[in-house]
Amino acid sequence: MRLLEINNLRTTFDIHVGKVQAVRGVSLHVDEGETVGIVGESGCGKSVSMLSVLHLLPDYAEISADKMVFDGTDLTQLSPKMFRKISGDQIGMIFQDPMTSLNPLFTVGQQLIEPLRIHKGLSKKEAEKIVLEKLRLVEIPDPESRMKQFPHELSGGMRQRIMIAMAIMCNPRLVIADEPTTALDVTIQAQILDLLQNLQKQLGTAVIMITHDLGVIAGMCSRVLVMYGGVVVEEGSVREIFYEPKHPYTWGLLHSIPQKSGKTKKLQPIPGSPPDLIAPPPGCPFAARCPYAMNICAAAMPPEHVLSDTHKARCYLLDEGAPKITWEGNRE
Ligand code: SF4
C-alpha cells in the first residue's frame, strides 16, 4: 500500500543574492515497509526534499507540490497543528549529526520522554517505561543509567542510537534517515546500519535513506532515486541502478566507488562542480560535466524515459537515434 506520494515538489530559498532553486520538480513514492534510497552529492537537493515534506525549513523557503499525500492525507491542506500531530506521530527523522540534534542542556531521558508526553499525552511514568523499552530495542546497555546522562557523556555511536530511539519513539509508519552514519567511524557505521535494518524488519516501518554512499544503498534499499542539481535523473530498483544504470551521472557515481573484484582499479572522480542553482541551466543539469553531452543537452531538460515498471531516467542518450554508449563508457 502506498504510504507517501509526492508529485512535482519544488523548493526555493529566497536569499539576498537571488532565489536558489534547490528542488526542481521531484516526484517519489514510498510503499508500506519499503526502504527507498535517495543518493547524490552534497547540494543535489536530497535532504532539502525531505525537510520540505516535514516543513523543517526556514521561513525563506518557498515550497510547492502538485501532490503530497501521506497515508491518504493531503499534507498540503493541513493546519500547522494537524501537520505537527501527523508528522510527530507517524514520521520519524534521524539526522546526520546527533551532537547537533540533541540538546546539550537536557539529559537523554528528558529529551526522549518529551515527545511521548506531547504526541501521546502520556504521564511521566508511562513515558519512562516506553523510553526504556525503546532504548533496549536500539541495544543501549544499562538504559536506566543512560537516561540520566547528558549527550556529551555518550560516544558518537551511542548518541546515534539515542537519535534512532527518538525517531521510533511514537511507532512511526515512516522513518527518514538523513546520512545517519556519515559522522561515525567505519565500524560504528556498520553497527548502526545493521541496527536500522533489524528495526525495519521488526517494526515494518518504511524508511527513506538519504545518503551519498552507494554502499549504504546496496545494503539497505530496494529502490533508489539518483538526484543531481535538484532533479531526479534516474530511478530504479537496486538491481537496475547497480547493473543496468542508464544515466551518465549514475555511471560516474558507480565508477567512483571501490570495486570488490580484487584487481587494483583507479577510482574515477567526476570532474567539475554542480550547477549554480540560482540560475540553473535550462537543459540537462549534468551537461557541463557529462563526457557525452550533445548540443541538445544544454538546450532543454531531457524527457523522462520509462525503461521498465520501476526504472526511469532523464537523458538524451536514451532517445531513438542517439549514440549508443554502454555504462562502462565505450561507444558501441
Ligand atoms: Fe549527458 Fe546529455 Fe544525458 Fe545530460 S542528457 S546526462 S548531458 S548525455
Q: Which structural class matches the secondary elements? A: alpha/beta
| Strand order across the largest sheet | 7-8-9-3-10-11-13-12
**Proportion of residues in extended strands:** 15-25%
The rounded distance between the terminal residues' Cα atoms is 41 Å
What ions, cofactors and ligands are bound? iron/sulfur cluster
Give the strand tally. 13
The number of helical runs is 12
* H-E order: EEEHEEEHEHHHHHEHEHEEHHHEE
Give the biggest sheet: 8 strands, mixed
What coarse outline follows from CA principal-axis ratios? globular
Helical percent range? 25-40%
- In angstroms, what is the radius of gyration? 21 Å
Regions with little confidence, pLDDT below 50 for 5+ residues: none
Molecular structure report:
The protein has helices spanning 46-53, 80-90, 98-101, 108-120, 124-137, 143-146, 156-167, 186-203, 214-220, 238-243, 248-255, 295-299; strands at 2-15, 18-31, 35-39, 61-64, 67-70, 73-74, 91-94, 174-178, 206-211, 223-228, 231-237, 304-306, 312-314. By secondary structure, the protein is of the alpha/beta class. α4 crosses α5 and α7 (156-167) runs parallel beside α8 (186-203). The longest helix is centred in the middle third of the chain and has 18 residues, at 186-203. It is globular. The two termini are 41 Å apart. It binds iron/sulfur cluster. Iron/sulfur cluster (SF4) binds at residues 247-248, 284, 286-287, 290, 292-294, 297, 302, 315-317.
